[in-house]
Amino acid sequence: MRLESLLQYTSEYLDLDAFSDFPGAHNGLQIDGSADVERIAVAVDASETVIGQAVEGGANLLIVHHGLFWDGEQRIVGRRFRKVSALIEGGCALYSAHLPLDAHAEVGNCAVLMRELGIEPEDRFGSHKGSPLGWVATVDEDRGEFARRLAETVGGEVRTIPGGPERVYRVAVVTGAASDLIAEAAALGVDTLVTGEGPHHSFNDAMELGVNALYAGHYLTEVWGVKALAAHLEERFGLEWSFIDAPTGL
Question: What is the pLDDT of residues 113-133, one digit of tens each?
């Protein structure tokens, strides 16, 4: 399949133009590659490890959640040179989708993780510059049991800040680093916020505002979108794909 056609479809499907993302996100095509795509690799981060495995595996396109330019550095030197040169020499294009891939109703990190937990998303929750990101839904479950199921689903440890009730009724999911939404959760009657990580002060935020904050890992809460997107592209266009797992432990 032609790279240009595939990227045009993907960008429209994810509604990239509707999002005002963080300055370093640079959603869309970041490094050009071969004109034709037969195999896709997907990953959370555009790390040297991931890029090396994508090229070695013969991918013509690497789709990631976190692209190359988060630090704002524009010079192509050092580790960035190594990444860019590996992609170019390997004929592998790099495409990044950050907030659009958190927020998407079908293949987004938040919606997919919620469904993996056996919960159907109901209403939008949390936003960035007017673009909705996460979802909220109704449950009826013991907090400890819910945290256990979350840990089992993501395959890692869950850090629970028990600021809310022991019985969970209203859960919001915003993957990554969304502890800044604890106050919004409290204001909207959400008793439990699931996200990836939070800073030190978020402990007191959760305890004082009456919200359970469940931190399941930035990486582990954001593997879902790239895999769901790849599966969607396989179903639509018949493209082979693979997920490159390079966990950070964070």
Answer: 999 999 999 999 999 999 999
